[in-house]
Design a protein that fits this description.
This protein is about 75% helix and about 0% strand. It has about 300 residues and is an all-alpha fold. It has a single domain (about 1-300), classed as MetI-like (MetI-like fold, Orthogonal Bundle). It starts with a helix and ends with a helix.
Length: about 300
């Protein structure tokens, strides 16, 4: 954590922004000027599509609901969706990738051919088919987005697990009586944890963008659930010229969240990947150059 704030300020900024979004989602009932009643926000059609004022800081939507309150409650949907999707997809990738690399043989061959066939199908087509089968809703959207992402991301986990599986200490564990599951849990998964964390941190932005895309196509959350993507595609698109803030404000928040997750993911990758810890262009290249200059001076003397 200290290296993140010291060597990767943009990554630290991304972490702070993500933490703020999480806090807003947790304390939405306290922060929202107009709280939800019985799961629904207060509707006031008399004051619909009004610009920002003292009563409604960011204006109102087509149903007279306070935009600021809607955005605060929408953060809860986006944060829950992003965290649940990334964790579930990562777990699926670990199960498929690690078991495939550890067991090997015909099991690995058959499983990887299934992954190859799955990746040949366009991802958006898979999402639309799954959402048509399961219906709209937050839980359905999480499952529909996490399953394809987990199957596709298993390739990276598998390649890292194969390199660890062939290491000498893992083979020695097998000679001493350790079975496949022991090697997976005690040796392979702990040693590929940097790769897992890099994928976990870097996939959050893609989940938020995909949620907005699914809402645009009409396969997102329920209409009664506050969501940034739904606000853009439903009210923002139809009232773009009358009330442009309905698309502007949630678009800015989605952009900030995607930017924060991308910066944090890149920082985690740079700090945890050993291939990026040295050489020209790395974050400690100046320190390496100073050490090389000192060594050169000693040799000349």
């Amino acid at each position: 954590m200290k290296d993140l704030f010291k060597k990767k300020p943009m990554g630290a900024l991304g972490l702070i922004l993500l933490a703020l979004f999480v806090l807003v989602a947790i304390f939405a009932d306290v922060l929202a000027p107009y709280p939800m009643v019985n799961g629904n926000m207060t509707v006031d059609v008399i004051h619909k599509l009004e610009p920002g004022s003292a009563e409604h800081l960011l204006g109102t939507d087509s149903l007279g609901r306070d935009v600021l309150s809607y955005l605060i409650y929408g953060a809860r949907t986006s944060v829950i969706l992003g965290i649940c999707c990334t964790i579930l997809s990562t777990l699926i990738s670990i199960v498929i990738g690690v078991t495939s690399a550890s067991i090997g043989g015909k099991f690995d061959l058959i499983l990887q051919r299934f992954v190859d066939g799955w990746q040949c199908i366009p991802g958006m087509l898979i999402l639309i088919i799954l959402m048509n089968i399961m219906g709209n809703g937050l839980v359905q959207l999480i499952l529909a987005m996490a399953i394809p992402a987990g199957i596709g991301g298993s390739r990276m986990i598998r390649s890292s697990a194969i390199s660890v599986k062939d290491a000498g200490y893992v083979k020695m564990s097998g000679i001493l009586g350790g079975n496949v599951w022991w090697k997976m849990l005690k040796h392979i998964i702990p040693n590929i944890m940097p790769v897992i964390l890099m994928g976990l941190a870097g996939s959050l932005g893609g989940v938020i963008m995909m949620e907005a895309s699914m809402n645009f196509l009409g396969y997102g959350v329920d209409p009664g659930t506050p969501s940034w993507g739904y606000m853009i595609t439903n009210q923002g698109r139809s009232n773009m010229y009358v009330a442009p803030w309905l698309a502007l404000y949630p678009g800015i928040l989605i952009s900030i969240m995607v930017f924060a997750s991308a910066m944090f993911g890149d920082a985690v990758r740079d700090l945890m990947d050993p291939r990026l810890k040295g050489g020209i262009g790395s974050y400690n290249s100046k320190k390496i150059a100073k050490i090389a200059a000192r060594m050169g001076k000693k040799q000349t003397v």
